[in-house]
Amino acid sequence: MRKTKRNQVTVGFVALGCPKNIVDSEKMLAHLAEAGFLIAAEPEQAEVVVINTCGFIEPATLESLEAVKQAIANKKRGKVQKVVVAGCLAQRLGAQLLDRAAGVDAIIGLEQRDAIARIIRDTLASDQSQVYLGPAPCAMVDDRVRLRIGPAHSAYLRISEGCSHRCSFCTIPAIRGPFRSKPMSLVLEEARELVGSGAVELNLIGQDTSLYGRDLKLKDGLAALLEEMEQIPGLAWIRLLYAYPTGITDRLVETITQSGRIVHYLDVPIQHANDRILQAMRRPDTKEDLRRLVERLRAAMPDIILRTTLIVGFPGETQAEFDELVEFVRWARFDALGAFTYFPEAGTPAAGFPDQVPDEVKQARLEALMLAQQEIAFAKNKERFGSRLTCLVEEGGQRTEGRRRRRRQSAIRNPQSAIGRGRFYGQAPDIDSLCIIQGCTAAPGRFVETKVIGTRDYDLVVEQI
Fold it and tell me: Residue range 66-83: average pLDDT?
């Protein structure tokens, strides 16, 4: 066992999945630190390994299982003693995980997140595998006091949990429970805490952020929350992720338009653009609804950056319906787009639908869609040549290889040798492209003014001015 002189147990943590999982991971890490555990830099260097898993779709499940099996392999080699599995896949599969990954010592459901320290102690004292699993959560969790694993200057802020939509392809309601909003006072307190710890950018997350406050009987709850958040000193950027089309009200658009801190960026998952497929997905939108929304947003904010998510190969999707989707994408000219092939997830209605699309057809359609989006993204990048962008620095300037061999004083004389990375308001952390900043003289978390001078695939090449 690797313990300190004070007999503190070391814990290695593997955080997988979406930003909601990242928040859960940071909260669990805080609980462990407060309980006296030591956090190992590398999982294989720890006595206990915790894997916070994702189980939304098949690729995420496979990635999570691979991480679990790697930890079990390290356990068999004597590198670790206990393997604990938490998160969405643990909630979804429960004790079935013991069959799919023999050697797991504890399985923790989502409602046991804040009991992680006690569970690890119990696991260390037991020779039997334990399953801590209840029904899908129905209470709103408190995310204050987190041990952050991302950059200090940017943070995710969960404003709601769960989902009450009944999309026919989605497992989220069964895993994370019904939609519930975090009380506004709690959101604002957490926001102030994050800003106080150095965050200048807050990225608001939830399964559907646009519905914030509806269960609390708040009218235009998200707009009201944003207006309160704007008053927090030191907060420069507020970004909205996962805003469903039907929840984007006129007041919300007006609030974003008039704000100096809410960036003109919206992540709006539409999933498809053919009316029959949308109906089969149990989505409330039509193609015309989506078209009007895009037009409304661009009319209100000509500089808005729109990101969306799409599914190709949904059961029964014909070539003509897929072509209609691509045509809509070419018309909408989304700035960023994530897409995945449909996976028949157990327990969802769509898994039993007839006319499942062959895998090779789904993959070919995905490639065709992403090529169409690539043309749009590359063209939009070229349109930015010569424009000026305010960038939030993610990585400070690094001297180029040639300059590393010269004196530091020379590098200071020629700031063009410093290369940094950052994001302008139209690039969300972790999911979007970056700005490669030439002549970067600022540290991470600082804002710099830049000029676009080129592109590198999806990234923009800019120079500090």
Answer: 95
- Taking the whole predicted model, whether its pTM rises above 0.85 is answered as yes
CATH number at residue 96: 3.40.50.12160
pLDDT in tens, 95-114: 999 999 999 999 999 999 99
**For residue 209, what are the CA distances in angstroms to 136, 165, 206, 223?**
20, 13, 5, 11
Residue carrying structure tokens 């020379």: 410
C-alpha–C-alpha distance, residues 101 and 90, integer Å: 11
Domain contains 3: no
Q: Let me know if 409 is exposed, middle or buried by CB neighbors in 10 A (0-12, 13-18, 19+).
A: exposed
Q: Which of 309, 313, 314 is nearest to 271 (CA)?
A: 309
pLDDT in tens, 278-314: 999 999 999 999 999 999 999 999 999 999 999 999 9
Asked which of 82, 97, 132 is the last residue of a domain, the reply is 132
Q: Which of 95, 9, 21 is nearest to 45 (CA)?
A: 9
Is residue 355, in this structure, part of any structural domain at all?
A: yes
**What are residue 463's phi and psi, to 5 degrees?**
-120, 140
Q: Does residue 224 have a pLDDT over 80?
A: yes
Terminal Cα distance for the chain, rounded: 53
Is the same domain home to 403 and 456?
yes
Q: In this model, does residue 336 exceed pLDDT 50?
A: yes
Give the separation between CA 122 and CA 406, rounded to whole angstroms: 56
Closest to 99 (Cα-Cα) out of 145, 141, 131, 139: 131
The pLDDT value given to residue 7: 66
Structural domain that includes position 245: 154-383
Distance of CA 225 to the CA centre of its chain: 21
Render the burial of 324-337: b for 16+ CB within 10 Å, e for the rest: bbbebbeebebbbb
Measured from the Cβ of residue 70, the count of other Cβ atoms closer than 10 Å reads 16
Examine the domain organization and report whether 69 and 194 are in the same domain.
no
Say yes or no to pLDDT of 4 above 60: no
Domain count across the chain = 3
